[in-house]
Structures are given as C-alpha cells and as structure tokens.
TrEMBL record:
The keyword Lipoprotein applies. Keywords: Lipoprotein. This is Lipoprotein. Residues 46-67 are annotated as: Disordered. It comes from Caballeronia sordidicola.
Amino acid sequence: MRPMFSSSSLSSLLCFKSGLFRWLAVLSLSLFLAACGGGGGDSDNNSVSSPGANNGGAGSSDTPGAQPIAATAANTVPITVGPGAQNFINIPNVSVTVCAPGTSTCQTIDNIQVDTGSYGLRLASDAAAQIITNLPINQSTSGGQLAQCTQFADGFTWGTVRTADVKIGGETASAIPVQVVGDLADSTVPASGCINGSNERTSRQLGANGILGVGVSPTDCGTACTNPVTSNYYSCPSGTNCSQVAVAVANQVVNPVTKFATDNNGVIVQLPPVASAAASVTGTLVFGIGTQSNNTLTGATSFRSSAFGNLSGTYKGATVTTIVDSGSNGLFFNDTSLPACTTTFTDFYCPASSQTLSSTVRGLDGTTGTVNFTVANAKTLAGSGTNYALNGLAGNIGSFPTLFDFGLPFFFGRHVYFGFGTNGNSPFVAF
C-alpha cells in the first residue's frame, strides 16, 4: 500500500498503494458466495529457496512455518489479522497511541494497518476524533496550514500534517509529523495533483483506522518534495486555497520507527502459518534489527533494495520490479493463464484448482532467490464469510504489468525484515 508520487518520480521508482486495488470485504463477498461452499486451497502457500543462502532459519525455510515470538518485550506489539475496523480480508493491524506533543493527552487507536509499502503514520480523522484537535497543524514556509495529498493506485488521502507523540508497544517517537486524513473539506482538494481515484477520507474508505507505514524509507517523499513542482505537500492559508509547496525532508511525514530512541533501524513482521483460511491470526511487529536479543537477523536471506524498497526479479521469463508489501491484501501480478473471478471481484484470480508457481527475486547487490507460492480460488477461500486471514489470495495488478507484489499472503509463516536506509545504512528486505 505504497504512495504514488508525481510521474517524474515514477521513472526511478514504482511507489503506490498496491494493496488496495479492490478491497475484498468478507461481508459482501460472503453474500455473493453463499452458494459456493466452504473454504479450500492448498497449504504451503509460499516458500523461498535462495542459492547459497542459509535456509535453515525461520525466515527462509522451504516450507514457511515460522511462528511469531511473543509480543511481550518493549520493542514489540501484537499484529492481528482479523475483522479489523471494517471487516476487510488480510489486513494486519496494530494499536497506536497518539498524544498531544509533550503531554499525557492521548488516544489509543486500534486497527491501524501495518504497511511495509509506505512510510509514515496516517490517521483517519473519524477514528482519531478524540485527539486531533489537540494535535497542532504544521505550518508551511509561506505560513499556511501544511497539508498533503498522498496518491495511491485506487485513490488518494488528503488532509493536514500535524505534530504528535506516537507510542507503539513500549517505544515512543516524540513530536513527529503525521498526516490526518479527511480533516479538510472536499472543496479544498487541489484541482491538480490529487487526480487518482476518489478521496479516501474515512476509516471505511481506508479499510482501517489509519496506516502505519514502516517501509524502508525514513520519510514518505524524500527529495522529490523539496521541489514545489514535484511535491505532494500543499500550503493552505486558513485551510483553503491550497497550492503546492516545497517541504524539507526533515519536516515531511516520517516513519515513526526511525524516531524511536533505540530499536530504530528496521522492523520485523512476523505472522504465523495459515494453511488455507482462518478466522483470525495473531503475530508480532518487532522494532529494531540486531539491537536486542529478540531481533537478530538469522536464517534469512538479505536483498538490498532501492531507497523505497524495490527489488527486481523475473516471473515466467519476464523482468519485473518486485515489492514485499504487507499493505497489499493479496499477491498481485499479471498472468493471463490464471482465470479471473467472474461477475464481481474480477481483480482476483479464481483457478479451478490451486496453482503452484514461482518468481525469482534479485537484490541490488546481486543476491538472488526463488519464491514458490500457490494461487488458490479467491471465492473458495472466502466462501465461509467468517475467515479474514486467507493464504493463496492473488489478483491481477492491472495497470502495472511489470510489477510483482508479494502482499500479505507472502508473510504467513515468515519473519520478514525491513532494514531502513538511515544512518548511512543501505535499505534491505530479508526473509
């Protein structure tokens, strides 16, 4: 679920909210599939084999079966894949406490989506109603209210940038910029810049009460937004008449984990195995890599990535840009040999029987690996209407044919590491 910037930035990186193409809601799907029977699909949905790598650990075994560690330490927080805020399938959620800077005036907000494909905390204004009036709105260099339009594959988020203390598990990021989504009127949406799809201004439209972007980049835009022409930030005098404005990197919406006092160089997403479908599962988000006894990088293959987490690879002989994105609720890639579901949910694949496939992954450092995965029938997977963790869910990536998106099903049974590009370190993804 990664932000898409201006067309100029797309030439060097593919950044977009890949996970939401068409949200697959359990309630509506169960009504549609009432006559389709119960669950199905194969186990062993994802596996990886990396030549020369240590494949003996939990993160990269031939049959992913890693269990998450207990979320009892200060650098951990539980992840739940279940009904969440809006009954959407395959949404990993955590609780985040947001406070007025330097005070004990706080609100704990549940069902914040963990998104390794975006960067920074974004709160749905309806879910954060108790605290947002206590969060000061940041000012642009020209003196107007600072706002942001973050474009995604299926829409955009529009709202002010504010300062907050953010607490997750036992860690705190003090006085950081966050985006509040939906706190500005639709009439203030810029005529240019916010052009992709609809305004996702509520928790219902987001599918969660907010988005916790913990991808490898420390900020959500970087140098592109230091130029007003390519910036997705706006200055809004008195909250209206918004115009593009340059924002220094230090003032952009920031990945909160990078601002923790310790355990700030990366995260580990750990989810248990799911054979086919489950009502819910609980995993762990671990902060830091190699900073504590519970976050060592062992038994996993590291792939150096671009500044925004991109890898490369091949699928059925075609070169693809590869991303590993917990904000995507399925595996997304183009394959005309896989039949799409009919009548509705046509962005998802519905093969008559589960298909075992593979894709290669390559890091910028030349490290390569082969990921084996299974595509199951989406209607069969969700047929019970009561399962929210679906392994084998996959769909067509549509307008991005050269992209391969390892979404949430990839994470089941794995420890997946995201090393940040901070303090001179090269960003990486490991599993």
